[in-house]
Amino acid sequence: METNPIPILTIQTTPFDDQRPGTNGLRKKTAVFESKKNYLQNYIQSLLSSIDLRDRQGCTMVVGSDGRYFSRAATEVIVQMAAANGIGRLVIGHNGILSTPAVSCIIRKIKAIGGIILTASHSPGGPGGDFGIKFNVANGGPSPDTVMERIHQVSRTLEEYAICLDLHIDLSCLGRHDFDLENKFKPFRVEIVDSVEIYLNMLRGIFDFGAIKSLLTGPKQLKIRIDAMNGVMGPYVRRILCDELGAPANSAVNCVPLEDFGGQHPNPNPAFAAPLVDSMKGGEFGFGAAFDADGDRYMIMGENGFFVSPSDSLAVMAANLSCIPYFSQRGIRGFARSMPTSTAIDRVAKAMKVALYETPTGWRFFGNLMDSGRCSFCGEESFGTGSDHIRDKDGLWSVLVWLSILAVRKQGVEEIVRDHWAKMGRNYFCRFDYEGVDSRAAYYLMRDLEAVITDKAFTTQKFSVGNNIYSVEKADNFEYIDPVDGSVSRKQGLRIIFTDSSRIIFRLSGSGAGTGATVRIYAESYERDPERHNRETQVVLGPLIAIALKISNIHERTGHRGPNVITCDQSSTAHQGPKSLSSLF
């Protein structure tokens, strides 16, 4: 306990006009947070002030980071400001490290009012990289729109912030640390906790660890390769997969969290996790996985480099949840997916006779469904999957689901996926990202395209491309009515659905720290015939892509010659795109 009370200071400031949080909180270039005077302090004050004073006084909050550059400095500011704003207790991961799933887990375990996560997800780190601040609320999930709007409104008129500049904490020192503050009757407490233990205990209650350990250590040991991409997941992979479940230590690579992620893009797709892809192509390993910087996204690969797309992973996991004790004991109440995610899981839901909810992009939309008991399992096409065990997507949990399925079914990854296609059909799927688009150009592109597809005449349109004819069945700007509270989310993406279940979707992304906007185009085609499940993605989706380019004129209107990133169910490539698909542009 400090002998002299620490003073609480009030610092004058001026508001910033660019602190509206997006889908993943507030994300900017690191230099903005580091160099703009009071930029970080303003946003933290806006976040804290958005919480009702009666709820804030004496409450508990969780703080964690993915270990990226500027996280330690930002964590100290958060501690100083939380103390000055009446927070009673902060729970922080050892060395400031906590994965996003672990933050959600701890919030729920200790009934905290919320948690602050310092991450820019899969974006690069370092002084020239990105930095972000997410706020998860009391259910453990991302902030709903109402909370983000409150934060933004406070930020627009903020004139001062409160801080205890003399309060300092050693993030490497586990245990409780109490601080006496001026004019406070109770001390302010900081608890530095083991980054993995609480989360690990939760997983022990979900999975059959014995079965997974037998898979990884038995006479027919499955050799695995796990790439933590020098993000937050290194300590979790080492502790859980290696120490707890018996995988050899050399199964895990890039497990030391680095401020710049080793100069790499911590993005778990085949383009940025190329070393893992190369390792898997060698045939030595039967299972591979990679995680993003904060541990909520993941990628699955099978022997010989067989890539499992996020949408296929979601559907296969849904169809095999009975392999997990958590679900076999509790039952399955429903599935949910974001609107752009492929409809593969819809077919699983129909076969299992459970409800399927289609939501806008953003994990926060799943929270109400899970809190009300409507949804047990959910996911997005952007490599995120989770369930009602927490309220955020969970990369390592997803990997353990896959390992559980392998242990029960005694089949390889590719065999399981192909068996799924044979039973349910295959959904060919691809996403095209146009990044750094002029914001006005992106706005008018989407506005004009909406006018085209919502015209009554469009629903009678037929598009002929080669030997393919596509008849429009429905076209709209997706609108979501929350079945729990009746709230309405409008303009969530332009959809064109054809009579053969093919889809084209256009959406403006709500995340990212770079300049300009990101326009995403999604193409999907369903194939029931098993004889046609080995076709090239280019052949299947080429006609739909041609239609999308024709009706949007995206290249002419944005000045882009093609997408910056292509992510599809066979491969992912940054900038130039897969050879089989880049020729379409």
From TrEMBL:
The gene is pgm5. InterPro entries: A-D-PHexomutase_a/b/a-I, A-D-PHexomutase_a/b/a-I/II/III, A-D-PHexomutase_a/b/a-II, A-D-PHexomutase_a/b/a-III, A-D-PHexomutase_C_sf, Alpha-D-phosphohexomutase_SF, PGM. The keyword Cytoplasm applies. Residues 19-160, 199-305, 328-423 form the Alpha-D-phosphohexomutase alpha/beta/alpha domain. Its main location: cytoplasm. Keywords: Cytoplasm, Phosphoprotein. GO terms for biological process: carbohydrate metabolic process; myofibril assembly; striated muscle tissue development. Coiled coil: none annotated. It comes from the Eukaryota. This is Phosphoglucomutase-like protein 5. NCBIfam families: PRK07564.1-1. GO terms for molecular function: phosphoglucomutase activity. Gene3D superfamilies: Alpha-D-Glucose-1,6-Bisphosphate, subunit A, domain 3, Alpha-D-phosphohexomutase, C-terminal domain. It is found in: Cytoplasm. SUPFAM superfamilies: Phosphoglucomutase, C-terminal domain, Phosphoglucomutase, first 3 domains. One of its GO terms (cellular component) is sarcolemma. Belongs to the phosphohexose mutase family. Transmembrane segments: none annotated.
